Amino acid sequence: MALVEISDVVKTYSKGDEVIKPLDGACLEFDRGEFLSLMGASGSGKSTLLNLLAGIDRPNSGSIQVASEEITNLSRTRMATWRARHVGYIFQTHNLMPVLTAYENVELPLLLLSMSRSDRRRRVEIALDAVGLTDRADHYPRQLSGGQEQRVGIARAIVADPTLVVADEPTGNLDADTSVQILELLRQLNKQLGTTLLLVTHDEEAAEVASRQLLLDHGKLHEQNGRPPQVAKEQSA
Question: What's the CATH code of the domain at 124?
């Protein structure tokens, strides 16, 4: 069974008298350990899909299952608990707390889980080591470069060993060289740690880092080769 199953998902928003439908029967399946990229025109619904997968928003209809659990029907409380344990989110703008050190920023998601201080320390140290920032643990965001801040954001996303990591334009605010480094880091995390990743990007070169490239067009998901996601997955197996 696939790790993630998105079936006939519809999401609409109202803007005055206009109804906007960024997702219109979207379907997708992918397995644990896969690295997918998602492209689409501005406003096509890429971030909407990430927010649905992360349990930040809910679809109007359709089904989203992650690790065999239907998440669209969870209560707010259960959803918050589920999200803390199962989803890591990498933001475009880092979203680091300026008054906290790199170590403390990475530790934040673990404070929502039942875990001893020693276990939290072990996980934070592993996460910082994975992104090459062990020597910056006591530095504040203002003392870090943009690339280092994003690495802290990535460490925070993986520290709880989540089922799924979603990244929303993680290189959007970085220069070309730093972007290459961040994308290579994501590739290494996927390859070496088996992290399941879904990357949203507008950059074709960035998208090619992933092993599967998806396109969101008119509310539906397509493999870049033009075949529906399920068909392409079956033929590549």
Answer: 3.40.50.300
Amino acid letter, 52: L
Q: Which residues pair with 212 in a beta bridge?
A: 36
For residues 24 and 219, is the Cβ–Cβ distance under 8 A? yes
pTM over 0.85, yes/no:
yes
Cα distances (Å, whole numbers) of residue 216 to 81, 134, 213 = 29, 38, 10
Runs of H (alpha helix) within 76-200: 76-86, 102-107, 117-130, 146-158, 176-193
Q: pLDDT tens, position by position, for the chain (237 residues)?
A: 799 999 999 999 998 889 899 999 999 999 999 999 999 888 888 999 999 999 999 999 999 999 999 999 999 999 999 999 999 999 888 889 999 999 999 999 999 899 999 999 999 999 999 999 999 999 999 999 999 999 999 999 999 999 999 999 999 888 999 999 999 999 999 999 999 999 999 889 999 999 999 999 999 999 875 444 544 444 444
- Which helix (H) or strand (E) element contains residue 11? strand 4-15
Note down the domain range covering 206.
4-236
Best CA proximity match to 63, nearest among 7, 19, 101? 7
Among 140, 105, 142, 141, CA closest to 124? 105
Total domain count for the chain? 1
Which token pair is 65?
């299952």
